[in-house]
Specification:
This protein is an alpha/beta fold. Helix content is 45%, strand content 16%. The chain has a single domain, classed as NAD(P)-binding Rossmann-like Domain (Rossmann fold, 3-Layer(aba) Sandwich).
């Protein structure tokens, strides 16, 4: 029986994953900034679930959550970094404080939890770290430059981490979902307060007041949760797990576009070495 620590379990994919892990028969430390938002999950699974307050931007609550998990269940076998939110703005519109909070939550929040669980995983020579990215890291839509940037940073971090910990019996997975039927495009989506008119036809079309996606996303959070469990339990977990037809299609299209451009400019790219 594995013990999972999952961040951001109050709603959406985090909640679906927590419930799926518990129904699967594993232990789950379910977390949210407001622990009352996840207490109902723990109440339904009193023997295998522990509800803990965790704010990924706060070192003390991160350490306390990992300590609580280890005291209750003995170890953290699987860490899932799911906590986060969306932010939309043209790059020029992005507010410094809002962008700093976004990076602190997604990138440095991931670093905090990873550092907190790795000593125990290294001591046991086992463990899995799952970091939630987004297809946005690949397709970088207008108005999502900052969100795409934090998710791209998480993917790069995860790949380096995977190489570093593989000899220690630990693995790391980046999960890149497309659009799922959660409140991500609703309550969890923030945006720049002051739009710039010149971006009305690009980033402006994706502002919340113009968005028609919320509640119509194609992805099923329950199926996503099952897929993550399957990947974690597989004999050879992937580095990159795409979730959703839109993610698979978007990834392939972005990759092909990039390869086409690499081919187009290859001669110039190869012309810059020192002549021997």
């Amino acid at each position: 029986m594995a013990t999972w620590l999952i961040t951001g379990c109050s709603t959406g994919l985090g909640r679906a994953l927590a419930e799926a892990v518990l129904d699967h028969g594993d232990n789950a430390v379910v977390t949210a900034r407001d622990v009352s938002a996840v207490q109902d999950i723990a109440d339904r699974h009193p023997d295998t679930a522990l509800a803990v307050a965790l704010d990924v931007t706060d070192d003390d609550t991160v350490r306390a959550a990992v300590e609580a998990a280890e005291q209750r269940f003995g170890s953290v076998d699987v860490l899932v970094n799911n906590a986060g939110y969306g932010y939309r703005a043209a790059v020029e519109e992005g507010e410094d404080d809002a962008v700093a909070r976004l990076f602190d939550t997604h990138v440095f929040g991931t670093v905090r939890t990873v550092k907190a669980v790795l000593p125990g995983m290294r001591a046991r020579h086992s463990g899995t770290i799952v970091n939630l990215s987004s297809i946005g890291a690949r397709i970088s839509p207008e108005g999502s430059g900052y969100y795409a940037a934090v998710k791209a940073a998480i993917e790069a971090l995860t790949l380096s981490l995977r190489k570093e910990v593989a000899p220690l019996g630990i693995t790391a997975i980046a999960v890149e979902p497309g659009g799922f039927r959660t409140d991500f495009a609703g309550r969890s989506l923030t945006q720049a307060a002051e739009p710039i008119a010149d971006y009305a036809d690009t980033a402006g079309k994706r502002r919340k007041e113009h968005d028609t996606v919320d509640g119509k996303q194609p992805g099923d959070p329950g199926k996503a949760a099952a897929a993550i469990i399957q990947a974690v339990e597989s004999e050879h977990p992937p580095f990159m797990l795409l979730l959703g037809n839109d993610a698979s299609n978007g990834f392939r299209a972005a990759l092909q576009s990039l390869l086409t451009e690499v081919d187009e400019w290859e001669s110039l790219s190869r012309s810059t070495d020192i002549d021997e």
